[in-house]
Amino acid sequence: MKILFITLSNIGDVIMSFPALDKLIACYPKPEFTVVCGERAVGLFEGNLFVKRVVIYNKQKGLAGKINFFQQLINDKYILVVDLKNTVLSLLLSAEFKTYPWENPPASISHMTDRFLCRIEKFIRAIPNEAGLSIKNSLFIGPGERSQIAELLDSTPITSKDKLAVISAGARSHIKMWPVDRFAKLADRLITELDFKVILVGDNDDSAVCGSVEKNMKNPVVNLCSKTTLKTLAALLERASLVISNDSAVMHLASYVDVPTLAVFGPTDEKKYGPWSQKNAVVKSSLDCRPCMSAQCASSDLACMEKIGVDEVFLAAKRLVFEQ
Q1: Which residues pair with 165 in a beta bridge?
Q2: Contact call for residues 114 and 18 (beta carbons, < 8 A)
Q3: Where are the alpha helices (DSSP H) in the chain?
Q4: Averaged over 69-96, what is the pLDDT?
Q5: By the 8 A CB rule, do 113 and 76 touch?
Q6: Global pTM value
Q7: What is 53-100 written as a DSSP string?
Q8: Contact, 13 vs 7, CB < 8 A?
Q9: I need a labelling partner for 79 at 20 to 30 A (CA). Which of 13, 154, 242, 283 fits?
């Protein structure tokens, strides 16, 4: 049964679509998914037995690239086309069932994971074993990823008995980033007051940020920035007792593998993009101008981030780990 699943481009947005993909995998017998996503998110689908093909969408490729992209899809006959990007592709492709661009969830449904689930609800069939819905098939974390993380941690002072806090201080946009000196002070307090071992994570673009956090710390920290793939990072997050992040892909990955996740939010809307693991919390400022969802701060001082103090985030972390 061939299903086309058109998800979004950014890694975090793709991860937020995973609950919808999980549900489709559980509901259809022997599904063969073609997934459309952005180039940076391709690694999330490696090793997934349900995903037969991944097609990269790049809107910067121009007309020739878009024609080539369309040709990769048009020859297949799909039973179902799910287009979470709300493009005209669903109108152009042949399928027995499909989503349509004008079908939007009601405004009362805020979070993007719930909005994506709402989009596919009409295609969900009765499942003989409802427990199948709890299985997370969108991201395959296999023995290889777990052994790679075990080997990586073996090269550090961290042992299997240590309590791990993973910190992601980077983000795709600088306006989403809490100051690095505060992440450094927070990490020091997690080590000295709560007996955590702290690991810094991120991709190549976050190397400078993680380096600055490490440089500003008084205690030793394990910096694994740029040393993991998306899937080995997921395997690492599974082992964490706490993940602290800006609004970033790491926050959503931690939410999907369901570890306690604390997010620091500035201009973006936590009701739409906040953490969604069973145990989660958000620290935000009370400024009337947020969330503004703007690429540039109107006052140019990022007050919504600047007003969030270390004490506030530390206490939220402590509550999340010990009081819930």
Answers
A1: 198, 242
A2: no
A3: 11-16, 18-27, 62-74, 89-92, 112-120, 143-154, 180-194, 207-216, 230-238, 249-256, 270-273, 303-306, 310-322
A4: 90
A5: no
A6: 0.94
A7: EEEE--GGGHHHHHHHHHHHHHTS-EEEEEETT--SHHHHS-EEEE--
A8: yes
A9: 13
Neighbours of 256 (CB within 10 A): 23
Ramachandran class of 293: left when φ > 0, alpha when ψ lies in -120 to 50, beta otherwise: left
Q: Which is more confident, 323 or 258? A: 258
The encoded tokens of residue 119 equal 């989009």
Over residues 245-258, the mean pLDDT reads 98
At 253, which amino acid appears?
Answer: L
Buried b (16+ CB within 10 A) or exposed e, 257-274: bebbbbbbbbbbbbebbb
Q: Which residue has the tokens 């570890």?
A: 259
Q: Look up residue 33 and give its amino acid.
A: F
The per-residue pLDDT for range 138-185, each reduced to its tens digit, is 999 999 999 999 999 999 999 999 999 999 999 998 889 999 999 999
**DSSP string covering 33-47:** EEEEE-GGGGGGGTT
